[in-house]
Amino acid sequence: MTKADIVNALYEKIGLSKKETSHIVEVVLETLKENLEKGHKIKLAGFGNFVVRQKVARKGRNPKTGEEIEISRRRVVTFRPSQILRKAVNQP
Amino acid sequence: MTKSELIEQVAEKIEGLTKKQTEIIVNEVLESIKNALASSGSPRVEIRGFGSFKVKQRRSRDGRNPKTGMQVSIEAKKVPVFKAGKELRERVDVGSAE
Predict the structure, then answer these.
(1) Under an 8 A CB cutoff, do B29 and A77 touch?
(2) Residue at B98 is within a domain
(3) In chain A, which among 4-63 make CB contacts under 8 A with chain B?
(4) What percent of chain A clears pLDDT 70, i.e. is strictly above it?
(5) Mean pLDDT, to the nearest integer, of A20-31?
(6) Where does A40-92 sit in CATH, by number?
């Protein structure tokens, strides 16, 4: 499933054009990205939480060559699915 | 940020869009991702620029109740996972440079 599939399934249901719906979905995604960029946690009830975590620098290894490399300090986004989402993917 | 704060921020950015309409859209988007992940096979939802969701199979394993120390078996299950897309990854990491 892609963004286009989401828009296609959605626009008729809400009575807006495909173009408008697509624009709104983009604004939703952009707003999520802006907030994560600022380091904010996003809590979407019933779906899950997106959290920005600071990772410390550590030594790693190139698994192909065995060469040791420095993995720098960085910020990453992690997702914690809600119980509802966890249950949904396990429904028989 | 909570879902209602997200809805407020989105509605503010688009002229003529009500909070109610925004709420419906946000909920429908989340619902369609959830339904796709709940479908059989190995579902994958790709939202370019943001990230992708898929479902991973976890094997059964032996675990322990951390309180009582009692051994329990943890059944095989599926878990939803998210991987941030390139744009999101880069923007979040650059945000730490300040």
Answers:
(1) no
(2) no
(3) 5-6, 9-10, 13-14, 16, 21, 23-25, 27-29, 31-33, 35-48, 50, 52, 54
(4) 100
(5) 96
(6) 4.10.520.10
Task: Check residue A72 and give its pLDDT.
Answer: 86
- Whether A72 contacts chain B with CB within 8 A: no
Are A37 and B92 within 8 A, CB to CB?
yes
Ordered by start, the domain boundaries in chain A are: 1-38, 40-92
Quickly count: other Cβ atoms within 10 Å of residue B62's Cβ.
Answer: 8
In the structure, what pLDDT confidence band is assigned to residue B40 with cuts at 50, 70 and 90?
Answer: confident
Classify residue A76 by burial, with Cβ atoms within 10 Å: 0-12, 13-18, 19+: middle
What is the pLDDT at residue A91? 86
**CATH code, B46:** 4.10.520.10
DSSP-assigned beta bridge partners for residue A51: A78
The whole domain housing B10 covers 3-93
What span, in angstroms and rounded, lies between the C-alpha atoms of A40 and A53? 10
Number of domains in chain B: 1
